[in-house]
Design goal:
The protein is an alpha+beta fold. 31% of the residues lie in helices and 18% in strands. The chain binds guanosine-5'-monophosphate (5GP). Guanosine-5'-monophosphate binds next to strand 2.
Length: 136
């Protein structure tokens, strides 16, 4: 797996505004913020996408993510926020190291979502749910 800029940030070779660190997780301010307080939470494990992340790193992220969200809200005064996690180029992932964006929402500042729900076919949905459940 090729190394990304985030591994260098974790090692301190590239400066960042760190907000949290433990043995498995690192969090810092995003250099291109969608809003004030836009924070990235990343595993130290250099997995490219979430589906490749180990259970141990996933658990470590899951344990701390809500606490960092609360800290971002407290520090910025935001009452609303989005957590965004992109996987793959078509899904807007640019840095190929797993990362969770915490993006405070202040009026128009923050994450804009173009959400276009389609119709639901229950027969196809039942078959798909069966396939996914078998793969878990
Ligand atoms: P993605 O589109 O991959 O989900 O988001 C990558 C994020 O990493 C972007 O929001 C971008 O601003 C941020 N980013 C890229 N390079 C750096 C960097 O060197 N330092 C910091 N703090 N953030 C970075």
């Amino acid at each position: 797996m090729s190394e990304t800029i985030f591994s260098r940030i974790i090692r301190g070779e590239i400066p960042s505004h760190k907000v949290y660190e433990d043995d498995k997780v690192f969090a810092f301010l995003d250099i291109g913020p969608l809003s004030q307080g836009h924070t990235l939470v990343i595993p130290k494990e250099p997995a490219a996408t979430l589906d490749q992340l180990s259970d141990e790193s996933s658990a470590a992220i899951g344990r701390i993510l809500p606490r960092i969200c609360r800290a971002v809200m407290k520090a910025t005064g935001a009452a609303s926020f989005n957590v965004l996690q992109n996987n793959g180029k078509d899904a807007h992932q640019v840095v190929m190291h797993v990362h969770f964006h915490i993006i405070p929402k202040f009026g128009p500042r923050g994450l804009e979502i173009d959400w276009n729900p389609g119709p639901f076919d229950h027969a196809a949905g039942a078959e798909l749910a069966r396939k996914i459940a078998a793969a878990v």
